[in-house]
Amino acid sequence: MRLLTYEEDGRLMITSFDDDAIPPYAILSHTWGADAEEVTFADLAKGDSKHKSGYKKMFSYKKMPGYKNVPGYKKIRFCGDQAQQDGLQYFWVDTCCIDKSDKAELSHAIQSMFRWYQNATKCYVYLSDVSTKVKKVNSISTEFTWEPAFRSSRWFTRGWTLQELLAPNIVEFFSQEWERLGDKTSLSPLINKTTGIPQQVLEGGTLSQFDVNERLRWKGDRKTKLREDMAYSMSGICDVDIAPVYGEGEEEAFRRLHDEIRKLEDCLRDLRSSDPRDDKKRIEDRKGGLLAGSYRWVLDNTTFQQWQQEPNSRLLWVKGDPGKGKTMLLCGIINELESSMPPSVLLSYFFCQADDVRINSATAVLRGLLHMLVTQQPSLASHVRKKYDHAGKAIFEDANAWVVLTEIFTSMMHDRELETTYLVVDALDECVADLPKLLDLIIRTSTSSPRVKWLVSSRNENHIKERLKSISDEAKLSLELRQNAEQVAQCVDAYIDHKLSCLELLGEADLRKQVRDKLHRKANGTFLWVALVMQELEKPETWDPLAVVEEAPAGLRQLYDRMMEQIQRLSARNVDICQSLLCATAVAYRPLYLAEMGSLCRSAGRTTMVAETVRRIAAMCGSFLTVRNEQVYLVHQSAKDYLSDKMQAAVLPSQGEMHYKLFAQSLELLSSRLKRDMYHLVEPGCSIDEVRVPDPDPLETARYSCVHWIDHLYESKALISSVGGLQTADVVNDFLRKKYLYWLEGLSLCKSVGKGAVSMEKLWFLVQMCDQDRLTQLIQDARRFIMYHKGAIEGYPLQTYASALLFSPTGSLIRQLFQHEEPEAISIRPTL
Length: 832
Known about the structure:
Layout: E1 2-6, E2 12-16, E3 25-29, H1 41-45, E4 56-59, H2 71-85, E5 90-92, H3 94-97, H4 103-119, E6 122-126, E7 135-137, E8 140-142, H5 147-151, H6 160-166, E9 171-174, E10 180-183, H7 188-195, H8 199-202, H9 212-217, H10 229-235, H11 250-271, H12 276-286, H13 302-309, E11 315-319, H14 326-340, E12 346-351, H15 362-376, H16 381-391, H17 401-413, E13 421-426, H18 435-448, E14 452-458, H19 462-468, E15 476-480, H20 485-501, H21 509-523, H22 527-538, H23 545-551, H24 556-568, H25 572-587, E16 592-593, H26 594-600, H27 611-619, E17 625-628, E18 631-634, H28 637-648, H29 655-673, H30 703-716, H31 725-749, H32 753-767, H33 773-795, H34 803-806, H35 813-817
Parallel strand pairs: 3-5, 3-6, 6-9, 11-14, 11-15, 12-13, 13-14
Antiparallel strand pairs: 1-2, 2-4, 7-8, 9-10, 16-18, 17-18
Helix pairs in contact: 10-11, 15-17, 20-21, 21-23, 25-28, 25-29, 26-27, 29-30, 30-32, 31-33, 32-33
């Protein structure tokens, strides 16, 4: 990038900088006059267009006759003077900082223009047709109002000036007399009336907050000298990059622009496995909202301040026992960072949750962090697109996903344009898949990426502590909640006071004080203990709140024991169904919807339980379960750990038993639900993006089973068991022979074909461990079928019965079994 500066003797100097060494600079936005009026690079270089990094050349315009009357030079002089007033040594003017005779340089400049304006410290808009002079009307001196001229300025009609308005953080407007009119924030109402651009984006909002189609509408009736430039000028605004191809025409240029936008949207959609922003809101809602008093103490903590302020402090590990408020503490820190950090700083976060397969693996963490980073700074998408454009969605899901995502992440962390970046990961101990790999990545980036700061939380577990030892003491900090017990206890007290203030049962001040004091004494700095006791107090049948608090045992595990004892005192039938719900929730790969739970936990010979019945049963489970947005959750990871211990101790059905039950119920459910064209799409060419879920949804109760039945079979080990293994093999064999293609259609409708391919690999691994030749051959063929046709089935559900069948080998078992589903209209069929 070339930048201009004035020497002390008034001579103009132009200097070329490498991308990683560009100093702060101002940038000019204006409308071009006639070619003869502008100062070009050729004018400055006097024919010498060779320009290397570090090259400097001085020009003395004072020796040029009539230089003061050249309008273009006046703009350069103004920009330089204004930059000096603002403490900026360098400035950029498009007329003379780009060698337009060099086509390669011009192409690079057009593709870099949005970034150059975006990175400018200040942008000065010179409005040559807006005057602030006093005019005389009918010999009477009146002050001229410049607003009408401002709104009708030619600057608002030109194509390139749109990105020059939107890209920089600070845009200042000047009249033809070089008088400052205001900036895009103070003038946002006027600019909004002129352009229709929302004031929110003019006042600091990010472009990513607005849909791309809305951004495209902002161009309005703007025009460019070359018709293709209208599309090129919109590329940065739409977060994509297209190389200029002059002569292609406006229509083709916009076609390429829309094609790039679609590719970026596809990439972001496929990268997103879960939106951490939605997870954060769900967690806060589930825990009753974020109370400011429960986390603000950490803002004054010296360890936290050192992590935030010291460049060499790159990792802060927050550790504490279950229920001590680590997750809500991080939610509060995230809110504080979002409200205080400058626009150039990035913040990405992720909340691990052991009981949800979407968010309990190292790969999921990386996908979530990358998705948030690219959403905030779209230019970073290039690191993802380099891999994605070659292989598509598979790079995020197949066996090599971690390797590829790590390469993308590492490349992104070393991007020259990356500013200070905060990466927050909650509950490392709930990352059940590949945690060591994630810790190693955190360690590497903590030592090699000086602009990256990590904030992580977990229980105080030795294996995490040992792994993090390799980070130097200077770079690594730890904040132990036990060592800050007094501050945590004060926050718990504030939480108690807040919860009691919402409890109508405590009418008398004296009773409220007694309950409050008792809770304060027994809470032991544990938010979760308070939350569970408060659930008891909030129950309609509670009439003696003081007795409830007095009877509640101190300590989380003791409280769980009491809740389990209460369940055991129910009728035998209710005990069985409560235990079934608890165990199903504990082993499920994600929180189950009420309708799904009703199908999977029904008693033998009974029909599916309706959602409201499941809700009532969940309420009987002693506060172990909570229902949010029609999904059943365990109240906390510590509750899952408690139930797992009970299952292992045979107090509850074992995990193997529960996995087999969920497998068997899933296959029974799928056998009754799956059929051809469940959503009445009719046409094989109907894409997954065009699918509309019918009401009622035939897959409503079967979605979980469709995606996870093989996972439960695998964990049950029933297929390789000496007892019942043969019977299980017969059940699987029968299902695959009768329902395999319909299952693939179901996976496509659930947008989980990639997961289905991984599941078939697990099933293939499993079947090789048992002596079932007939089943082995079938699964091998079914595995090949989904691997070869995954792309077609994923994008077009009914291609399962068209191209997938037709282009399978004639000797394929799956093709032979489902020959009756081949399209009748095709008389000549390929022979493979």
